[in-house]
Amino acid sequence: MSPSVQESTSNAQAEAELITQAQDLVQRARDAGATQAEVYARRDASTSVTFEKGDLKLTQVDASAALGLRVVVDHKLGFASTNQIADTSLTRVAADAVALARMSPADEHNVLPEPGGAHADLDLSSGGAGDLTIEEAVEVGRGLVAECVAIDPRLSLDKADFGTGRAHLAIATSTGIQVARSVSGANLSVFGMAIDGDDVGGFDYWGEHVRERSAIPAAVTNTATRFGTSAVGNLGAGAAESYKGTVLFAPDAFLDIFVGPLTSGASAIAVQRGRSALAGKVGSAIAGKGISVLDDPSDLELAGARPFDREGQPARRFALIEDGVLNGYFHNAYSAHVDGTTTTGHAAGGARAVPGLGPHAISVAAGDAGTKSAMLQTLGKGLLVNRFSGSVDPASGDFSGVAKSARWIENGQEVRPVQETLISGNLFELLKGQISLGSTPEIVMGAARAPWALVDGISVTAG
Amino acid sequence: MSHDPTDVLAEALAADAGPFVELRYHARRTRSVAVEKGRVDQAKVAEHTGVGVRVLEDGTWGFASTDHLDVASVRHSIDAARRAARSSSAARKNKLAGLPETELARGRFDAPGYDELAGRPIDESLELVLRLEAQTRGHSKSVASASCSYTEVFEDKAVVTTDGAKAWTRLVRPEFRVLAVAEGNGDLQRGYESVGTTGAWDCLFRRRTPEQMSDAAARMAVDLLTAKPPEGGRKTVLLSPSLVGLLTHEAIGHTVEADFVASGSCAAGKLGQRVASDLVTLCDSGGSEYHDGAGGTLLVDDEGVPTQRTEIIKNGILTSYLHDRESAAHFGVAPTGNARAWEYDDQPLIRMRNTYIEPGESSFDELVAGIEDGLILDGPRNGQADANGEFMFGTQSAWRVKNGKRGELVRGVNLSGIAFDVLQTVDGVGNEFQWDLGSGHCGKGQPAKVDAGGPWLRCQVLVGGAQ
Predict the structure, then answer these.
(1) In angstroms, what separates the C-alpha of A280 from chain B's closest C-alpha?
(2) Fewer CB in 10 Å around end: N or C, chain B?
């Protein structure tokens, strides 16, 4: 057999075994008294190498398994999880979950979903990036360190990691859901700073996620370049100036301050429980025209791509915000039952907890503000924020924190790095104000995609 | 577990003739209940159990793990870890010759409270959480939503090494949290209270009852609706014990972790130098000084080293870093018992435990009276430290102080500064001590349960706010 045929056979076999294991635990739960039961089963195998201070620290090989059991007994909820697959452990897990359910108060909305129809046929496992040997993983790690050091000898690598692995997961329920998938990929990251004599620059980091083995060299180069350039740029930090006005945000910082809290507030459960500022805003403009946010689980460039969600429901494209208008909320089976609607396929989480709710693969659409250089010219004088270290209250929208890897801009040019600079504001008010987005969205840490953003009305407090 | 797991580990090790091996059994069993707005979101039991194997071969670390506690599986993992080390040793430039001899723990080490909480039915915890969530929501018509949760983590650990460690530890860490969300004029504000300890409920609710915490969270959420943001700038502030804990952890603790020092953190090369006002003595401890039950209490670390109280700063002078066995060898000192792994399949890293500033001599009123124009700050949120000593942490609430008098409530803000510069500005240290960060976790690639605290402390920091 060719490697790809062997691989798909191996995936199919592992998925079939997990389905059988999940069905077995569903039956044990039914035997223990569960009205309904759902099992999430997962098996992982990985190899990772860690470099510290530019030298190999540790090589790790792991193989693990996990089972999460959700039961409903007369609309009462219970949950138990384990990594122990022995017969006695599984019987105990079923008994624990049912016992917990029996003591919980009933909630009419605790109902497991029915099968949700066909899901997308995504290839998440044949790229080969998750199947490197120990020796190959060590070579990638060495290459990552070497490329960083080659950028500038003043770089000090606190940590560089490379991990390669494959996972199989399955979901089976007493309501007839049976789905499984396999995932293969690699992650790499670098964390450190630049040091020049007594001058210690601020931390910086970068990382990527890849599915294709052939994409690893480019990911190594990009990670080293992004990290190294920014970390060296942090040396010689001085003071910013205090002002209230426009700030240029890199995609990382824009996602942290503005997009993450928005997606959190778009959780239907947050709305139902009275802790979302987006309650009652469906169909209303919550951001400026030109701002569009899409959750696309078929986007294979993002690590969160998947054919189905944590409840085995098809994961679908969901246009959260279009031209500033909120289109709807993310639903899982529970929240959909509360609102009398259908799930949007946004159940999230793993084997160790009751399914939660959240997006899979977020992208913010490009705007018309041009390149980063053009946006610097538009800013003229002010602050550029690469990363944000602070607090964002998703309920009120208030945020406050330190501008990291920040630069002071004059005449459209970076004139110095800055430290001890705090930024604050209210994201919901700012989103409805003056925001312009760049023309080239970038993928941040393999997880989400966003363009650069110029946002007016930020309070900048310089030390 | 009722049987000593060190015996199985020792048997697996007895058949291994190679160089250094460390076997670490870890069973984590979590019981958790969470309620929001009258609905049970979580009622769960989770277990994660196995053995982590670390070997030192050809001067290189190899690591493997198994979720089976039997001799054959552990031996198989030792072989896998050895293969990993051998396969990668060519990439290690500075071979580790070995670990220095040190006193290693042998015997059984139990922290109080394990059996008491294991015997307490979880339905009592669910009843508490349901009642307190309802009480929080009923505090005021302005409280639109509330949530309440209780978690207890039972940890059984054993470590056996080829150079003599053979220790079995058991401890339990309960946590209680309550959150209120108040709504007014289209604005939402949150009030949050939490507590976490190592021990049973007598420790957990020693300082405040769950009812008092519920009341405080609801009151804060409502009061913040009418509070305004303060103006930003460099200010004199009085930090509560929880924020002093956050300051010691974020601003100082991370910069003195020896792995980070070796990378060139701002604490590198500063041993013996003044880094703080002479009012400041700062420690990290596996024990729980002043009050029992600090959340990061640890009797033996994950390399088998008995923990100790480590004085990091004594009267303003930097005196020690925090070490595992490898970094202690590198720096030529004794390990401080700071090697910690989150779960069995995580490698041990240098982590803090209970970090604090020792109490001084001033009363709270004396500290407030010394502020001409500043803020009293309370309620920790998140925090982060940086290589250059720049730190950040968030606060829930603040009160203006003018001419030594406490004024109106303003919204919580984020603080920043350069760690050692801020400690040099300390000019007042309170005389009452609290552990108050025990519900928090530290993140460094993997989580770690930590606590921190101290007395009220007066210093100068940069305050984020309106311009």
Answers:
(1) 11
(2) N
